[in-house]
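Q: Could you predict the 3D structure of Glycine C-acetyltransferase?
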Amino acid sequence: MKDLFSKIYRDKGPLGKWADQAEGYFVFPKLEGQISNRMKFQGRDVITWSINDYLGLANHPEVRKVDAEAAEKYGSAYPMGARMMSGHTDLHERLQNELADFVQKESAYVLNFGYQGILSTIDALVGKDDVIVYDVDAHACIIDGVRLHLGKRFTYKHNDMDSIELNLARAEKIAEQTGGGVLLISEGVFGMRGEQGKLKEIVELKKKYNFRLLVDDAHGFGTLGKTGAGAGEEQGVQNDIDVYFATFAKSMASTGAFIAGDQEVIDYLKYNLRSQMFAKSLQMTLVEGALKRLEMLKTMPELKNKLWENVRALQGGLKERGFDIGTTTSCVTPVYLKGSIPEAMALVKDLRENHGIFCSIVVYPVIPKGLILLRMIPTATHTQEDIDETLIAFSAIRERLENGTYKKLSAAIAKQQEQS
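A: Sure. Here are the predicted structure tokens for Glycine C-acetyltransferase:
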């Protein structure tokens, strides 16, 4: 019999094997200072493009005031206990009612965290006789939720309608045999590519197939649609989303999440979501803070307008300079380059230390080998100066990547490590 830990000693995993070179810089970096368009990294001032504070609420003075007053009033513990036992309050109910109204649903239920919330929602919606159909590029929280499912599950090619229909037909055939139903899961916005899920086209398939639709709209909530109600509103199909999920961790710059849908569905979920039934209630400081943030989403459209002004300037500038930003239809701005992981490390180091630009780097196994993805998140706090400096920097690093500078640099570093 093997030692349980033997695999840990033998194989650190596709990302873990780079830990000695990457940790503290490329992964687990420490940004310092107030959350803003410009922060500090290892003592240097950097323009930050990796903070999901879309509307700039994280350090808005009105938000900071409400957060501070709520902390003084309630402390960090109240209410104690799970919602079903001793952690339910009038303010939780008020927040739920306002969220339901904002996303145009009958009812909503506030969740402690986004990741465990969507995972538990999937678990509660399906039983062993049901079939799940979901996008192959779904976020890890969705994948983990699907892993809990004891029945059949099928992935479809990313945003591929032929693949979706093929798998719906397979799922429907199995469900007819088991006596179960079909749940289709899509994201409103795919956080890596920036593409919106094809919700309008998926909803159209309801005329042909019998399924329910769950949408994780973490990146769409607050940024898309006329009122900010998300990707469903943007595409004109909000009413046809059976269960709508969003997190407070993006546009609301906080912690928590919620699900919304028909009253009877939400009532069922709140009595069957294990991650909520057996976990401490969302603290009152976060509930009061969420109410203030939601009020600002509804009454300050200038925040979303400024966000999109910056999105258009950044994405337009990148396109004009010939950068590949894929097919993003959201604020998420991916920049695709070709190169190895060592080249990517040299490139990002140059970008941060010589140009003062901080953005997230994504490499294999998250994306195919040979590609480098620089993922950028524009916010309402960014300025045209930030954008102009970034565009100049990106042109410079692309030239060095293409002329082999980073390849030579990474080879030299590797040789030094071998000799040491």
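Q: Anything worth pointing out?
A: The two ends are 37 Å apart (CA to CA).
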